[in-house]
Amino acid sequence: MDLTFERLKLSDADGGGEDRLSALPDDLLIAILVLVDDAAAAARTSILASRWRRLWALLPELRFSYIEHHRIGAALAAHEAPDLSRLVALTEDSSPESVSAWLPIAARGLSGAIHLEVVRTESETEAEDTGAIDLPCFEKATAIMVKLGFLGLALPPSGVFARLGDLQLVDIQLHGQSSGIGDLLSSQRCPSLRFLLVSDVRGLDSFSIHSDSLLHMKLSSLHHLQQLTVMAPALKRLKVSSCFTDPLNPDLSVANISAPQLTALGWKNVIEPSSILLDKMMHLEQLSVQLFIVEKEEVFRHNHYCMKLLRRSERIHNLHLLICYLPNIYIGPYWMEHMPRLPYITSLKLQVAANGHSLGAISFDVLRRCTGVKKLYLNFLPESQLEEQTLCPSGCNCDQPSNWRMEELALNYLEEIVIDGMRGTEHEMSLVQWLFHWATVLKRMQIIFHESGAESKAKELLQLLLQSFYDVKISIYVP
Predict the structure, then answer these.
(1) What is the pTM of this model?
(2) Can you tell which superkingdom this protein's organism belongs to (predicted)?
Protein backbone atom coordinates (compact mmCIF):
# COMPACT_ATOMS: atom_id res chain seq x y z
CA MET A 1 0.00 0.00 0.00
CA ASP A 2 1.36 3.40 -0.98
CA LEU A 3 0.75 6.25 1.42
CA THR A 4 1.34 9.87 0.45
CA PHE A 5 1.67 12.45 3.21
CA GLU A 6 1.16 16.15 2.61
CA ARG A 7 1.81 18.81 5.23
CA LEU A 8 -1.38 20.74 6.00
CA LYS A 9 -1.04 24.51 5.66
CA LEU A 10 -2.84 26.87 7.99
CA SER A 11 -2.99 29.43 5.15
CA ASP A 12 -2.27 29.76 1.46
CA ALA A 13 0.97 31.26 0.25
CA ASP A 14 -0.60 34.68 -0.06
CA GLY A 15 -1.86 34.54 3.55
CA GLY A 16 -5.43 35.36 2.58
CA GLY A 17 -7.02 31.98 1.84
CA GLU A 18 -8.91 29.46 3.91
CA ASP A 19 -6.66 27.02 5.78
CA ARG A 20 -7.00 23.43 4.72
CA LEU A 21 -7.57 22.08 8.25
CA SER A 22 -10.57 24.33 8.69
CA ALA A 23 -11.98 22.97 5.45
CA LEU A 24 -12.65 19.66 7.16
CA PRO A 25 -16.29 18.86 8.11
CA ASP A 26 -17.53 19.99 11.51
CA ASP A 27 -17.96 16.42 12.74
CA LEU A 28 -14.31 15.65 12.09
CA LEU A 29 -13.07 18.87 13.69
CA ILE A 30 -15.20 18.24 16.75
CA ALA A 31 -13.80 14.70 16.99
CA ILE A 32 -10.30 16.24 16.98
CA LEU A 33 -11.20 18.68 19.77
CA VAL A 34 -12.66 15.87 21.89
CA LEU A 35 -9.20 14.29 21.89
CA VAL A 36 -7.82 17.45 23.53
CA ASP A 37 -9.69 16.26 26.66
CA ASP A 38 -9.83 19.72 28.23
CA ALA A 39 -12.61 22.25 27.63
CA ALA A 40 -10.41 25.29 28.23
CA ALA A 41 -7.75 24.05 25.82
CA ALA A 42 -10.42 23.27 23.22
CA ALA A 43 -11.77 26.81 23.52
CA ARG A 44 -8.29 28.25 23.00
CA THR A 45 -8.14 26.65 19.56
CA SER A 46 -10.20 29.66 18.38
CA ILE A 47 -6.88 31.44 17.82
CA LEU A 48 -6.27 29.17 14.82
CA ALA A 49 -9.02 30.78 12.73
CA SER A 50 -12.48 32.25 13.04
CA ARG A 51 -13.79 28.94 11.71
CA TRP A 52 -12.84 27.32 15.07
CA ARG A 53 -14.31 29.99 17.31
CA ARG A 54 -17.55 28.24 18.27
CA LEU A 55 -16.58 24.63 17.69
CA TRP A 56 -15.84 23.98 21.38
CA ALA A 57 -19.47 24.82 22.20
CA LEU A 58 -20.57 21.85 20.08
CA LEU A 59 -18.43 19.28 21.88
CA PRO A 60 -20.38 16.26 23.16
CA GLU A 61 -17.92 15.92 26.07
CA LEU A 62 -16.53 18.57 28.43
CA ARG A 63 -13.70 18.24 30.92
CA PHE A 64 -12.77 20.99 33.39
CA SER A 65 -9.54 20.60 35.34
CA TYR A 66 -8.89 22.91 38.29
CA ILE A 67 -10.53 26.08 36.99
CA GLU A 68 -12.85 28.49 38.79
CA HIS A 69 -16.43 27.36 39.18
CA HIS A 70 -17.87 30.53 37.68
CA ARG A 71 -16.01 29.68 34.48
CA ILE A 72 -17.57 26.20 34.48
CA GLY A 73 -21.01 27.75 34.82
CA ALA A 74 -20.33 30.24 32.00
CA ALA A 75 -19.06 27.48 29.71
CA LEU A 76 -22.10 25.28 30.37
CA ALA A 77 -24.45 28.22 29.74
CA ALA A 78 -22.75 28.86 26.38
CA HIS A 79 -22.66 25.23 25.37
CA GLU A 80 -24.76 24.60 22.26
CA ALA A 81 -24.57 20.83 21.66
CA PRO A 82 -28.04 19.25 21.83
CA ASP A 83 -26.75 16.46 24.10
CA LEU A 84 -23.85 16.50 26.52
CA SER A 85 -22.74 12.88 26.85
CA ARG A 86 -19.93 13.35 29.38
CA LEU A 87 -18.98 16.00 31.92
CA VAL A 88 -15.89 15.84 34.14
CA ALA A 89 -15.12 18.51 36.72
CA LEU A 90 -12.01 18.27 38.93
CA THR A 91 -11.53 21.13 41.35
CA GLU A 92 -9.72 22.26 44.48
CA ASP A 93 -12.34 24.88 45.30
CA SER A 94 -14.24 23.49 48.29
CA SER A 95 -16.98 26.12 48.40
CA PRO A 96 -20.34 24.31 48.29
CA GLU A 97 -22.05 27.45 46.99
CA SER A 98 -19.76 27.70 43.97
CA VAL A 99 -20.38 24.07 43.00
CA SER A 100 -24.13 24.31 43.61
CA ALA A 101 -24.32 27.31 41.27
CA TRP A 102 -23.52 25.40 38.06
CA LEU A 103 -24.86 21.90 38.83
CA PRO A 104 -28.46 22.79 37.82
CA ILE A 105 -27.17 24.02 34.44
CA ALA A 106 -25.36 20.72 33.98
CA ALA A 107 -28.46 18.76 34.98
CA ARG A 108 -30.51 20.38 32.22
CA GLY A 109 -28.10 19.52 29.41
CA LEU A 110 -26.49 16.25 30.49
CA SER A 111 -27.68 13.07 28.79
CA GLY A 112 -24.72 10.86 29.76
CA ALA A 113 -22.22 10.67 32.63
CA ILE A 114 -21.00 13.25 35.14
CA HIS A 115 -17.86 12.90 37.27
CA LEU A 116 -17.53 15.54 40.00
CA GLU A 117 -14.46 15.40 42.23
CA VAL A 118 -13.29 17.93 44.81
CA VAL A 119 -9.68 17.50 45.93
CA ARG A 120 -9.07 18.65 49.49
CA THR A 121 -6.13 18.51 51.89
CA GLU A 122 -6.27 16.37 55.01
CA SER A 123 -6.71 19.44 57.21
CA GLU A 124 -9.62 20.60 55.07
CA THR A 125 -11.42 17.26 55.40
CA GLU A 126 -11.23 17.59 59.20
CA ALA A 127 -12.50 21.17 59.22
CA GLU A 128 -15.87 22.18 60.63
CA ASP A 129 -19.06 21.89 58.62
CA THR A 130 -18.94 24.33 55.70
CA GLY A 131 -22.41 23.69 54.29
CA ALA A 132 -23.55 21.31 51.61
CA ILE A 133 -23.59 21.00 47.84
CA ASP A 134 -27.16 20.74 46.57
CA LEU A 135 -27.43 17.83 44.16
CA PRO A 136 -30.12 18.57 41.59
CA CYS A 137 -32.18 15.92 39.82
CA PHE A 138 -30.38 14.70 36.70
CA GLU A 139 -33.38 13.48 34.73
CA LYS A 140 -31.39 12.30 31.69
CA ALA A 141 -28.03 11.31 33.21
CA THR A 142 -26.94 7.68 32.81
CA ALA A 143 -24.06 7.74 35.33
CA ILE A 144 -23.18 9.96 38.31
CA MET A 145 -19.89 9.76 40.22
CA VAL A 146 -19.45 12.21 43.12
CA LYS A 147 -16.29 12.34 45.25
CA LEU A 148 -16.16 15.38 47.52
CA GLY A 149 -13.35 14.99 50.06
CA PHE A 150 -16.03 14.86 52.77
CA LEU A 151 -17.80 18.03 51.76
CA GLY A 152 -21.50 18.03 52.55
CA LEU A 153 -24.00 16.74 49.99
CA ALA A 154 -27.73 17.40 50.15
CA LEU A 155 -29.81 14.96 48.10
CA PRO A 156 -32.76 16.23 46.06
CA PRO A 157 -36.06 15.63 47.89
CA SER A 158 -37.97 15.04 44.65
CA GLY A 159 -37.50 14.26 40.97
CA VAL A 160 -36.94 11.10 38.95
CA PHE A 161 -33.52 10.03 37.67
CA ALA A 162 -35.19 8.18 34.83
CA ARG A 163 -32.09 6.94 32.97
CA LEU A 164 -29.59 6.64 35.81
CA GLY A 165 -27.89 3.24 35.69
CA ASP A 166 -24.64 3.88 37.61
CA LEU A 167 -24.38 5.89 40.86
CA GLN A 168 -21.21 6.28 42.94
CA LEU A 169 -21.08 8.34 46.14
CA VAL A 170 -17.58 8.51 47.66
CA ASP A 171 -16.06 10.57 50.50
CA ILE A 172 -19.07 12.71 51.29
CA GLN A 173 -20.77 14.08 54.39
CA LEU A 174 -24.45 13.34 53.97
CA HIS A 175 -26.74 16.20 54.97
CA GLY A 176 -30.31 15.75 56.07
CA GLN A 177 -31.97 12.54 57.23
CA SER A 178 -30.08 9.38 56.22
CA SER A 179 -33.44 7.95 55.14
CA GLY A 180 -33.28 10.36 52.20
CA ILE A 181 -30.76 8.19 50.40
CA GLY A 182 -33.13 5.23 50.50
CA ASP A 183 -35.90 7.36 49.03
CA LEU A 184 -33.60 8.58 46.26
CA LEU A 185 -32.52 5.04 45.34
CA SER A 186 -36.01 3.57 45.27
CA SER A 187 -37.46 2.11 42.07
CA GLN A 188 -39.85 5.05 41.90
CA ARG A 189 -37.06 7.61 41.62
CA CYS A 190 -34.25 5.53 40.06
CA PRO A 191 -36.11 2.96 37.94
CA SER A 192 -33.05 2.10 35.80
CA LEU A 193 -30.38 1.81 38.52
CA ARG A 194 -28.03 -1.14 37.88
CA PHE A 195 -24.80 -0.38 39.79
CA LEU A 196 -24.44 1.36 43.16
CA LEU A 197 -21.28 2.24 45.12
CA VAL A 198 -21.51 3.95 48.51
CA SER A 199 -18.10 4.36 50.16
CA ASP A 200 -16.84 6.47 53.07
CA VAL A 201 -20.12 8.31 53.50
CA ARG A 202 -20.44 10.06 56.84
CA GLY A 203 -23.77 10.72 58.49
CA LEU A 204 -25.22 7.41 57.29
CA ASP A 205 -26.37 5.33 60.26
CA SER A 206 -29.38 3.81 58.51
CA PHE A 207 -29.44 2.61 54.91
CA SER A 208 -32.54 1.11 53.35
CA ILE A 209 -32.88 0.40 49.65
CA HIS A 210 -35.80 -1.14 47.76
CA SER A 211 -34.87 -1.51 44.11
CA ASP A 212 -36.31 -3.78 41.44
CA SER A 213 -33.57 -2.98 38.91
CA LEU A 214 -30.33 -3.06 40.97
CA LEU A 215 -27.84 -5.73 39.86
CA HIS A 216 -24.55 -4.84 41.59
CA MET A 217 -24.00 -3.03 44.91
CA LYS A 218 -20.87 -2.19 46.92
CA LEU A 219 -20.98 -0.71 50.42
CA SER A 220 -17.65 0.06 52.09
CA SER A 221 -16.29 1.99 55.08
CA LEU A 222 -19.72 2.99 56.41
CA HIS A 223 -18.34 2.99 59.92
CA HIS A 224 -21.40 4.19 61.80
CA LEU A 225 -23.92 2.13 59.89
CA GLN A 226 -26.35 0.39 62.25
CA GLN A 227 -29.41 -0.44 60.17
CA LEU A 228 -29.02 -2.03 56.73
CA THR A 229 -32.03 -3.13 54.70
CA VAL A 230 -31.68 -4.37 51.13
CA MET A 231 -34.72 -5.51 49.14
CA ALA A 232 -33.44 -6.18 45.63
CA PRO A 233 -35.07 -9.09 43.79
CA ALA A 234 -32.71 -8.79 40.77
CA LEU A 235 -29.45 -8.21 42.67
CA LYS A 236 -26.62 -10.46 41.45
CA ARG A 237 -23.51 -9.13 43.22
CA LEU A 238 -23.25 -7.66 46.73
CA LYS A 239 -20.14 -6.56 48.65
CA VAL A 240 -20.27 -5.19 52.19
CA SER A 241 -16.87 -4.37 53.74
CA SER A 242 -15.60 -2.36 56.72
CA CYS A 243 -19.11 -1.44 57.84
CA PHE A 244 -20.74 -1.67 61.30
CA THR A 245 -17.41 -0.71 62.92
CA ASP A 246 -18.79 1.70 65.53
CA PRO A 247 -17.49 0.20 68.83
CA LEU A 248 -19.95 2.22 70.93
CA ASN A 249 -23.07 0.45 69.68
CA PRO A 250 -22.07 -3.03 68.45
CA ASP A 251 -25.25 -4.69 69.73
CA LEU A 252 -27.68 -2.27 68.09
CA SER A 253 -26.82 -2.99 64.47
CA VAL A 254 -29.11 -5.02 62.23
CA ALA A 255 -28.81 -6.25 58.64
CA ASN A 256 -31.77 -7.55 56.65
CA ILE A 257 -30.98 -8.58 53.08
CA SER A 258 -33.39 -10.07 50.57
CA ALA A 259 -31.67 -10.86 47.27
CA PRO A 260 -32.90 -14.24 45.99
CA GLN A 261 -30.93 -14.03 42.72
CA LEU A 262 -27.56 -13.34 44.37
CA THR A 263 -24.62 -15.06 42.64
CA ALA A 264 -21.66 -13.31 44.32
CA LEU A 265 -21.38 -12.17 47.95
CA GLY A 266 -18.48 -10.36 49.61
CA TRP A 267 -18.81 -9.94 53.39
CA LYS A 268 -15.74 -8.51 55.10
CA ASN A 269 -16.51 -6.70 58.34
CA VAL A 270 -14.53 -6.75 61.56
CA ILE A 271 -17.61 -6.33 63.77
CA GLU A 272 -20.80 -8.06 62.69
CA PRO A 273 -24.34 -6.79 63.33
CA SER A 274 -26.04 -8.41 66.28
CA SER A 275 -28.79 -9.61 63.93
CA ILE A 276 -28.28 -10.65 60.30
CA LEU A 277 -31.12 -11.93 58.15
CA LEU A 278 -30.03 -13.14 54.74
CA ASP A 279 -32.25 -14.98 52.26
CA LYS A 280 -31.44 -18.47 51.08
CA MET A 281 -28.70 -18.10 48.49
CA MET A 282 -29.87 -20.72 46.02
CA HIS A 283 -27.87 -19.25 43.11
CA LEU A 284 -24.68 -18.27 44.94
CA GLU A 285 -21.51 -19.11 42.98
CA GLN A 286 -18.87 -16.87 44.59
CA LEU A 287 -18.20 -15.98 48.23
CA SER A 288 -15.61 -13.62 49.76
CA VAL A 289 -15.07 -13.60 53.54
CA GLN A 290 -12.28 -12.91 56.02
CA LEU A 291 -11.28 -14.58 59.27
CA PHE A 292 -9.24 -13.17 62.15
CA ILE A 293 -6.93 -15.43 64.13
CA VAL A 294 -7.03 -13.30 67.28
CA GLU A 295 -7.88 -13.47 70.96
CA LYS A 296 -10.24 -10.49 71.07
CA GLU A 297 -13.71 -11.51 72.16
CA GLU A 298 -15.48 -8.99 69.93
CA VAL A 299 -14.38 -10.67 66.71
CA PHE A 300 -15.55 -14.15 67.72
CA ARG A 301 -19.03 -13.25 66.52
CA HIS A 302 -17.56 -12.23 63.19
CA ASN A 303 -15.71 -15.53 62.76
CA HIS A 304 -18.83 -17.46 63.78
CA TYR A 305 -20.87 -15.69 61.12
CA CYS A 306 -18.24 -16.24 58.41
CA MET A 307 -18.21 -19.95 59.18
CA LYS A 308 -21.99 -19.91 59.02
CA LEU A 309 -21.80 -18.34 55.56
CA LEU A 310 -19.36 -21.01 54.45
CA ARG A 311 -21.65 -23.77 55.71
CA ARG A 312 -24.55 -22.23 53.79
CA SER A 313 -22.43 -22.05 50.63
CA GLU A 314 -21.18 -25.59 50.23
CA ARG A 315 -22.01 -25.68 46.50
CA ILE A 316 -20.15 -22.51 45.46
CA HIS A 317 -17.42 -22.72 42.81
CA ASN A 318 -15.36 -19.62 43.67
CA LEU A 319 -14.06 -18.78 47.15
CA HIS A 320 -12.03 -15.75 48.23
CA LEU A 321 -10.77 -16.27 51.78
CA LEU A 322 -8.76 -13.61 53.66
CA ILE A 323 -7.07 -14.81 56.85
CA CYS A 324 -5.44 -12.30 59.22
CA TYR A 325 -3.10 -13.23 62.08
CA LEU A 326 -2.19 -10.90 64.88
CA PRO A 327 1.45 -9.78 64.67
CA ASN A 328 2.20 -10.85 68.26
CA ILE A 329 2.44 -14.32 69.76
CA TYR A 330 -0.90 -16.10 69.70
CA ILE A 331 -2.10 -19.12 71.65
CA GLY A 332 -5.85 -19.60 71.82
CA PRO A 333 -8.86 -21.30 70.20
CA TYR A 334 -8.29 -22.68 66.73
CA TRP A 335 -11.02 -21.41 64.42
CA MET A 336 -10.31 -23.29 61.20
CA GLU A 337 -11.62 -26.56 62.63
CA HIS A 338 -15.12 -25.13 62.11
CA MET A 339 -14.63 -24.64 58.38
CA PRO A 340 -16.81 -27.02 56.34
CA ARG A 341 -15.68 -29.07 53.38
CA LEU A 342 -16.28 -27.32 50.06
CA PRO A 343 -15.89 -30.02 47.39
CA TYR A 344 -17.27 -27.93 44.52
CA ILE A 345 -14.68 -25.14 44.74
CA THR A 346 -12.74 -24.91 41.47
CA SER A 347 -11.18 -21.46 41.94
CA LEU A 348 -9.68 -20.49 45.30
CA LYS A 349 -8.15 -17.13 46.19
CA LEU A 350 -6.37 -17.35 49.53
CA GLN A 351 -4.95 -14.14 51.01
CA VAL A 352 -2.92 -14.42 54.18
CA ALA A 353 -1.68 -11.62 56.42
CA ALA A 354 0.73 -13.89 58.30
CA ASN A 355 2.59 -11.23 60.30
CA GLY A 356 5.50 -13.55 61.00
CA HIS A 357 3.46 -16.71 61.49
CA SER A 358 3.79 -19.95 59.58
CA LEU A 359 1.85 -20.37 56.32
CA GLY A 360 2.00 -24.11 55.78
CA ALA A 361 -0.56 -25.33 58.31
CA ILE A 362 -3.27 -22.81 57.44
CA SER A 363 -2.83 -23.47 53.71
CA PHE A 364 -2.98 -27.21 54.31
CA ASP A 365 -6.12 -26.89 56.40
CA VAL A 366 -7.95 -24.82 53.78
CA LEU A 367 -6.84 -26.92 50.81
CA ARG A 368 -7.85 -30.21 52.40
CA ARG A 369 -11.38 -28.84 52.53
CA CYS A 370 -11.24 -27.69 48.88
CA THR A 371 -9.67 -30.70 47.17
CA GLY A 372 -11.52 -30.05 43.90
CA VAL A 373 -9.76 -26.75 43.25
CA LYS A 374 -8.32 -26.31 39.74
CA LYS A 375 -6.78 -22.85 40.08
CA LEU A 376 -5.21 -21.44 43.25
CA TYR A 377 -4.35 -17.77 43.70
CA LEU A 378 -2.21 -17.28 46.79
CA ASN A 379 -1.51 -13.74 47.96
CA PHE A 380 0.95 -12.92 50.75
CA LEU A 381 -0.14 -9.59 52.24
CA PRO A 382 2.41 -7.08 53.60
CA GLU A 383 3.68 -7.60 57.10
CA SER A 384 2.35 -5.30 59.81
CA GLN A 385 4.76 -2.54 60.88
CA LEU A 386 2.77 -1.64 63.97
CA GLU A 387 4.30 -4.18 66.31
CA GLU A 388 7.69 -5.81 66.56
CA GLN A 389 7.72 -9.28 65.03
CA THR A 390 8.34 -12.13 67.47
CA LEU A 391 9.02 -15.82 66.98
CA CYS A 392 6.10 -18.16 67.52
CA PRO A 393 6.23 -20.29 70.69
CA SER A 394 5.55 -23.99 70.78
CA GLY A 395 1.82 -24.51 70.41
CA CYS A 396 1.16 -21.31 68.47
CA ASN A 397 -1.98 -21.60 66.37
CA CYS A 398 -0.06 -20.94 63.18
CA ASP A 399 1.11 -24.57 63.41
CA GLN A 400 -2.38 -26.01 63.82
CA PRO A 401 -3.34 -28.70 63.07
CA SER A 402 -0.09 -29.91 64.66
CA ASN A 403 0.09 -33.12 62.61
CA TRP A 404 -0.37 -31.45 59.22
CA ARG A 405 3.13 -32.41 58.02
CA MET A 406 2.37 -36.07 58.57
CA GLU A 407 -0.98 -36.19 56.76
CA GLU A 408 -1.36 -36.86 53.06
CA LEU A 409 -3.00 -34.28 50.81
CA ALA A 410 -3.67 -34.99 47.15
CA LEU A 411 -4.92 -32.09 45.05
CA ASN A 412 -5.73 -34.17 41.99
CA TYR A 413 -7.38 -31.33 40.05
CA LEU A 414 -5.01 -28.43 40.76
CA GLU A 415 -3.44 -27.41 37.44
CA GLU A 416 -2.49 -23.75 37.97
CA ILE A 417 -1.02 -21.80 40.89
CA VAL A 418 -0.42 -18.04 41.02
CA ILE A 419 1.53 -16.69 43.99
CA ASP A 420 1.66 -12.92 44.49
CA GLY A 421 3.57 -10.83 47.05
CA MET A 422 6.45 -13.29 47.48
CA ARG A 423 9.33 -12.00 49.61
CA GLY A 424 11.36 -15.17 49.89
CA THR A 425 10.94 -15.78 53.62
CA GLU A 426 11.59 -19.21 55.06
CA HIS A 427 7.84 -19.81 55.60
CA GLU A 428 7.03 -18.83 52.00
CA MET A 429 9.78 -20.93 50.42
CA SER A 430 8.67 -23.93 52.46
CA LEU A 431 5.04 -23.51 51.41
CA VAL A 432 5.93 -23.41 47.70
CA GLN A 433 7.66 -26.79 48.04
CA TRP A 434 4.69 -28.23 49.91
CA LEU A 435 2.36 -27.05 47.13
CA PHE A 436 4.38 -28.97 44.57
CA HIS A 437 4.16 -32.03 46.80
CA TRP A 438 0.36 -31.75 47.14
CA ALA A 439 -0.48 -30.81 43.53
CA THR A 440 -0.18 -34.09 41.64
CA VAL A 441 -1.22 -32.78 38.18
CA LEU A 442 0.21 -29.26 38.30
CA LYS A 443 0.91 -27.74 34.87
CA ARG A 444 1.67 -24.05 35.50
CA MET A 445 3.01 -21.95 38.35
CA GLN A 446 3.52 -18.20 38.32
CA ILE A 447 5.33 -16.48 41.20
CA ILE A 448 5.32 -12.68 41.49
CA PHE A 449 7.81 -11.27 43.98
CA HIS A 450 7.03 -8.24 46.11
CA GLU A 451 9.11 -5.15 45.37
CA SER A 452 11.01 -5.81 48.59
CA GLY A 453 11.83 -9.38 47.55
CA ALA A 454 15.48 -10.07 46.83
CA GLU A 455 16.44 -11.05 43.29
CA SER A 456 18.82 -13.62 44.74
CA LYS A 457 15.89 -15.33 46.47
CA ALA A 458 14.00 -15.48 43.18
CA LYS A 459 16.94 -17.09 41.40
CA GLU A 460 17.43 -19.55 44.25
CA LEU A 461 13.77 -20.55 44.14
CA LEU A 462 13.70 -20.89 40.36
CA GLN A 463 16.78 -23.12 40.34
CA LEU A 464 15.32 -25.31 43.07
CA LEU A 465 12.00 -25.73 41.29
CA LEU A 466 13.45 -26.35 37.85
CA GLN A 467 15.69 -29.09 39.22
CA SER A 468 12.85 -30.89 40.96
CA PHE A 469 9.81 -30.16 38.79
CA TYR A 470 10.99 -30.08 35.18
CA ASP A 471 7.57 -30.95 33.74
CA VAL A 472 5.83 -27.84 35.20
CA LYS A 473 5.86 -24.49 33.39
CA ILE A 474 7.28 -22.05 35.95
CA SER A 475 7.37 -18.25 35.62
CA ILE A 476 8.94 -15.95 38.22
CA TYR A 477 8.65 -12.15 38.08
CA VAL A 478 10.78 -9.72 40.07
CA PRO A 479 9.97 -5.95 40.04
Answers:
(1) 0.83
(2) Eukaryota
